[in-house]
Amino acid sequence: MTIPKHDVREVFDRAIEHTRRLSPATFDQWFGGVQFDDLTDGVLSLRVQNEFVLEWVRDNFLPTLTEKIRELTGWSVQVAWTLDPALVTPIAQRSEVAPVRPRPIALRPVPTPVPASGPPSPRLEVVRRPPPPDEMNPKHTFANFVVGPSNQLAHAAAIAAAGGGGRRYNPLFICGGTGLGKTHLVHAIAHRVYEERPEARIIYVSAERFTNDFITAIQHHRMDDFRTKYRQSCDLLLVDDIQFLAGREQTQEEFFHTFNALHALDRQIVVTSDKYPQNLERMEERLVSRFSWGLVADIQVPELETRVAIVRNKAAQEGIVLSDDVALYLGQMIRSNVRELEGTLIRLAAKSSLTGRPVDLAFARAEITATSPPRAQTISVEDIQRAVCHHFHLRSTDLTSKDRHKSVAFARHVAMYLCKQRLKCSFPEIGRAFGNRDHTTVMSAVRKIEAQRDSDPQVRAHLEALEKKLAADE
Ligand code: ADP
Ligand code: MG
């Protein structure tokens, strides 16, 4: 098939956009060193900055790129390379800090799905699908999910919920601590269903977003639209972090009816939560009981082997060269949260690429020792409360009391802030430790102190004195 020049460029642009979407974190680093020259009769001419970029792009991106071109044109693509250190119009703009020998780094996976731009050219017979649901991280797929004893059940149930065989439970309730892969699994379900049944109407929302949608619908008298969207025009409803509905009675009521409507039609519902249904606070009993109708699958903290496998997997995805001893070391050191594990790996890789040091054991050790507060685990909420009371000359019961006197409230906010900063406690946890206060109260207290810390030198002085005191106590 011969394709006019301007269409050829469109084919290439679409294929490149597809490639970018699959590797948003590393794309710019590499394609900043590549330039498009031509695509004629199945020969793609690319200009590259150096051999290093050539090899990397050829091995890591080319299969995706050429496959997409083949899909659009029917050509089995050959690539002709030209080496040229001075590219005029590289495909991507590298960020300012791009190292000479770029190592792909991602500081955070970015949700990117962007529908291809422009109308499809009729001659190319491009199949247009609806864009995938919003806010999905393209990397959160089943293929990228490492299965181990800690998450086996949730993983199998998620595959079944996506229609992949095995008994399907409705609803599927996935619960577990933060950073253990709940959102990843839910996105994976959506990706799978989207791939296999592109016509399926998938809704992925956080409970927070559901709440906001609901409030907006009430405000603008658009409840009919809201209900059509969630109750009728939905084949698969994925609701993340349902614990957010705590205490939101009206939203719970609406969600209850949404749930019933979908369940009656046997539409799959998947809910995630940081707690088991029965431990959800301020949640209507009838909702809690419905959450247990299908399967409650929990995710536990992964075992060492799984943690190491996750690190290796992530490194491979991001193109980070990692030796076995470093993977093992990271798995041993960071135990309770996969997000933190990944974050440390990415930080190591970023530092390594900026300083030119390889990610070896000595480097990993130095980095982890430098960034983890020494023996932070030995300090407790009580220690913080005690230090704060002492500092502000309060009684030990003041912080947990209902006393709203300004100075007591300020000290309480400072103590909450320190618990969040130093111990990484969750907001509800902190609330419980401070006389059973609501997590939203804690959240706003922490935010307030954060803002004052940045704007008010007196507050900063209090915080510094307390930090010093706590460090000395450790
Ligand atoms: P949660 O929603 O439970 O707080 P996430 O799903 O956001 O956690 O996971 C945090 C990070 O850890 C994500 O980047 C995710 O891809 C990764 N992750 C968690 N569990 C796994 C796993 N078993 N395999 C691969 N990556 C994982
Ligand atoms: Mg999550």
Automatic annotation (TrEMBL):
Residues annotated to bind ATP: G179, G181, K182, T183
Gene from which the chain derives: dnaA
NCBIfam families: DnaA
Coarse class of the protein's main subcellular location: cytoplasm
Domain AAA+ ATPase, chain residue ranges per copy: 168-298
GO cellular component, one term: cytoplasm
Localisation per UniProt entry: Cytoplasm
Organism annotation: Chondromyces crocatus
Region (Domain IV, binds dsDNA) location: 353-474
Family (UniProt): Belongs to the DnaA family.
Domain observations: Domain I is involved in oligomerization and binding regulators, domain II is flexibile and of varying length in different bacteria, domain III forms the AAA+ region, while domain IV binds dsDNA.
Superkingdom, natural source: Bacteria
Protein name as annotated: Chromosomal replication initiator protein DnaA
Pfam families found in the cross-reference section: Bac_DnaA, Bac_DnaA_C, DnaA_N
Region Domain I, interacts with DnaA modulators, annotated ranges: 1-95
Subunit details: Oligomerizes as a right-handed, spiral filament on DNA at oriC.
Chain ranges of the Chromosomal replication initiator DnaA C-terminal domain: 380-449
